[in-house]
Design a protein that fits this description.
The chain is of the alpha+beta class. Helices cover about 45% and strands about 25% of the residues. Helix 4 crosses helix 5 and helix 7 packs across helix 8. InterPro entries: cNMP-bd_dom (IPR000595), cNMP-bd_dom_sf (IPR018490), HTH_CRP (IPR012318), RmlC-like_jellyroll (IPR014710), WH-like_DNA-bd_sf (IPR036388), WH_DNA-bd_sf (IPR036390).
Length: about 220
């Protein structure tokens, strides 16, 4: 595990010492749910290693991806729900084996007034998540499905640090609220453009795939 001052360079040394002394460190295996819809949260989650996935789930179990959390980032949902003692409205799951720190709620409140760096870190966390959700809303509301698919594949590849998408066409369709037939047809078009290669439950993104401009 990297030293905290490298993971959170914006935080004051005294605050980093308090985090190390009081936070609980946990290693989470891949594909483990950390927070469920309706669950009450007593700690804020800080990502040290790995990647977490934030998503909504409907009654049928279909998922809607909201965003990913990378090392050095905090879970905004846990910050809000823990401070207000509210139940979570989203799910949080590890994409790969991850290391997280759990900060007790009472310390979060103290640090907001005690450390300016923590205050600004929390504000920056809220701002970043808000901007990510605005981008997501723009794609859902104003983009065609082919553009949404490219955007989704790029986000997945970046979060998983790989050019290989190990998902079935049905899984992608579920996350994009589309049908398997539509996703398969669009993927085939991208393959014909030599932007990716298709095999059973695997999509390999080619180098020129990333030149497809989707803001």
């Amino acid at each position: 595990m990297q030293p905290l001052y490298k993971m959170f360079p914006q935080l004051e040394p005294a605050l980093l010492e308090e985090i190390e002394a009081n936070a609980i460190v946990k290693t989470i295996p891949a594909d483990e749910v950390l927070i469920r819809t309706g669950q009450y949260i007593k700690s804020a989650l800080l990502v040290i290693e790995g990647t977490l996935k934030i998503f909504r789930e409907n009654d049928e179990g279909a998922e809607f991806l909201m965003y990913y959390l990378q090392p050095g980032e905090a879970c905004a949902i846990s910050l809000v729900c823990a401070s207000k003692m509210e139940a979570s409205k989203v799910m949080v799951k590890s994409v790969e084996e991850s290391i997280i720190m759990m900060v007790p709620i009472q310390l979060m409140d103290q640090w907001m007034s005690k450390y300016k760096s923590w205050y600004y870190y929390v504000l920056e966390t809220y701002r970043n998540r808000f901007e990510e959700l605005l981008i997501l809303i723009d794609h859902v509301a104003f983009r065609n499905m082919d553009e949404r698919l490219i955007f989704y594949l790029k986000r997945y590849a970046k979060a998983h640090k790989t050019n290989f998408i190990n998902l079935s066409h049905q899984q992608i369709a579920d996350e994009l609220n589309s049908s398997r037939e539509v996703i398969s047809r669009l993927l085939k078009k991208l393959e014909q453009k030599k932007l990716l290669a298709l095999s059973r439950n695997t999509i390999e993104l080619k180098e020129n795939f990333y030149k497809e401009i989707i803001d």
